[in-house]
Amino acid sequence: MRVSELSRRSGVSVTTIKYYLREGLLAPGRQTSATQAEYDDRHLRRLRLIRALTGVRGLSVATTREVLDALEAHTGDTHLLLGLTLGSVSLSGESAEQDPATGEVQALVEELGWHVHESAPARATLAEALTSLRSLGVPMDRHVLLPYARLVERIAALDLDQLDCLTDPLEAAERALLLTVLLEPALMALRRMAQENESARRHAP
């Protein structure tokens, strides 16, 4: 396809596509003349992933390039590829800053039997949330979180089920990113609706 068709199908402007080409985020097309090039579905998938990383995850162009380079280096490792795309694995490999509740998070992970990378940002996020709740007088520990974690396991299984039919690693990475980031507001809305329903069941006349 020509660059105009690539733009139409990807939803990315021609100007932005040319910028990605200059920055090395997108591989050059096949030259058909001195001023024309043809692009294929690989360029389309790559563009969609770039748009997801910059638009949905909010990464800078430089960080997006690092993620894409890492993805290409680990195309055969689906688990690592998904971790890099979703940001659950740090590109630097450094562990997140320790919070007082870090030990509690580690104990929860061990009790669940989960395989979670030590540098996963979600560990720090959970630890900070526990610390904030305790500072406000809410007695929250891993024992309270355990039943929540078991429910989230089922959500994660549903998420990954939707990737089983995809054979292209970049397409799987893009779908995982969109499902994770864009579906989260919908899941939060469902939780609020379920809370209202449960409140009505328990308390409404």
* Element-level helix/strand string: HHEEHHHHHHH
Number of helices: 9
Structural class: mainly alpha
Strand order in the largest sheet: 1-2
The counted number of beta strands is 2
| Low-pLDDT stretches | none
- Helical proportion, percent range: 55-70%
Q: How can the largest sheet be summarized?
A: 2 strands, antiparallel
Instruction: Give average pLDDT, whole number.
Output: 88
Rg over CA atoms, rounded to whole Å, is: 21 Å
Overall geometry comes to elongated
| Measured distance between first and last alpha carbons | 63 Å
Beta-strand residue fraction = under 5%
Would you mind describing this structure in some detail?
The chain is mainly α. The chain is 67% helix and 2% strand. It is built from nine helices and two strands; from the N terminus they run ααββααααααα. Strands 1-2 form a two-stranded antiparallel sheet. Helix 5 (78-86) packs across helix 9, helix 6 (102-112) crosses helix 7 (121-135) and helix 6 crosses helix 8 (142-161). It is elongated. 20% of the residues are buried. The mean pLDDT is 88.
